[in-house]
Amino acid sequence: MYEQEAGADRRPVLVVGAGPVGLTAAAELRRRGVPVRCVDRAQGPSPLSKALAVWPRTLEVLRRLGGGKRIETHGLPIESLRYHSNNREVARIRFDDRTRPVTLPQPDVEALLGECLSELGGEVEWGTELVALEQDAHGVTVELRTADGTAVREEFSYVLGCDGASSTVRERLGIAFDGSTYAPLFALADVRVEGPLVHDANYYFCGPKGVVVLVGLPGGRFRVFTAAPAGTTREDIDLALIQRLLDDRGPGGLTLHDATWTTGFSVHARHAERTRVGRVFLAGDAAHIHSPAGGQGLNTGVQDAHNLAWKLALVHAGRAHETLLDSYADERGQVARTVIRQADLQTRAWTPTKRWHVALRDTALRVASALRLGDIAYVPGLAGLTYVYRQGAAVGPAGSVGGFTTGALAPDRTVWDRRTTRRVPLRLALTDLRMTLLVAGPGDHAVPAAATALAATLQQQYGDLVETRYLDTTDALLSDTAPRDAGLKRNDGRFALALVRPDGYVAVCGGGRGPELVRDWLRTAFPAQGHRPAATATAVTESDSESELKEALL
Length: 554
Prior knowledge:
By secondary structure, the chain is α+β, with helices and mostly antiparallel strands. The chain is about 30% helix and about 25% strand. Strands 6-5-15-16-17-14-18 form a seven-stranded mixed sheet, sandwiched between helices. The protein has a seven-stranded mixed sheet with strand order 26-25-29-28-27-30-31. The chain has a six-stranded mixed sheet with strand order 8-2-1-12-21-20. Helix 1 packs parallel to helix 7 (about 295-315) and helix 7 (about 295-315) runs antiparallel to helix 8. It starts with 12 loop residues before the first strand and ends with a helix.
């Protein structure tokens, strides 16, 4: 997608692992014009449902990749989370359209991403294992063992380790994966349930003998999981055991049958000591693992890949300074630490050991539910909408203006997009293939001369890397051109400038100092390119994919 500088790297990027994280990375890199190879030592995709919850921020990423139809066809939108203690409902957290997650089992997510990768001309090389790697300042040489046992050595520009909790890439780099393992073994079953349950709700039944969770699955089944008794082994876990635990800990009157999967698993909280060594990166479970509480695992990993891909594509094309890649470990490390901490707190809240702990938990849940505190403080975080990245290589000085906050996602207020003649959330109306300079202010006022001059300068210096759009905040109109000055009031300082990154986060924003802040930040991240004509062929492709996205949202 990005026009490459003379002497730009032409070698492919190697993505190790073809789960949701690796497939996201490979697809995002391909659609940005980066040659990619994606390998996985497995012989093919796993049919096991594994991760289930896909939260709104991740849904944005998947829809951008063309996954809207599969999400609507195969996903189950969740209406609420319902918490019970000693057979009484103590809290119910309902979702609105902005925060509602979808239950979409991992095989469907992988199929969606695999289709996208295929449409972009990529493929997964199944049965291909990374055996060794070594790197220098100029590239990474790896040894791969193919499905027929042949060993080959090849050179890549970068390597992305998306190969899960037992990551070979992390092991070959010698990176510590410190943390802890929760004491109980957890038991899981995907089953049909007879009893008075609403299928689009997630239930948390907490009692003196433990907690049991039931999550509705597309197709009519539920996932049931709970901590197994001390001394239980994986071989002990079957449907009969899980039924006994449900009878002991649940509300009663629920009968399990027709299981498609039963298993036992341990829950860990671990974080890689580093997520980048030179030209090699770790993402997803290779970088961090945590309790399934909150359903964040798949989401955090997909967003890791999304964060890294646009930066790596720009550096690979010679369009950005190498230092831009430094921001990946910092930004996603902030998120990983938050997710691990919150998941740990939720897991401990599920399994209190003292009676007063139970009383305190239940009281807190009742108060939070009555005051709808979950809607304000808890659910938007789970949805992935509230993270604010600190100042660094990809974020400018802290600041807020006109509803924009540096380091946070651009707002999702609804606007009328004149380009596509659709009413859509602002963030989704902006391209994710380049930077966007957003000039926002009242429609009956003239755009400041400094803003129009900045737009012209950026077009000359950065060409297809930055586009400018104008937001009339009075009538919520998003346009490609500034309104004509004739008949408009003189600007009175109510305009805001925001430079929005390809991933939807605000790199820098400001009012009167906005042009200076934008120029300074771009200068540190991207070398000036000289005049560069807009890439018209890319614009057609982008418009088509964005139209599909907006149709899926309407």
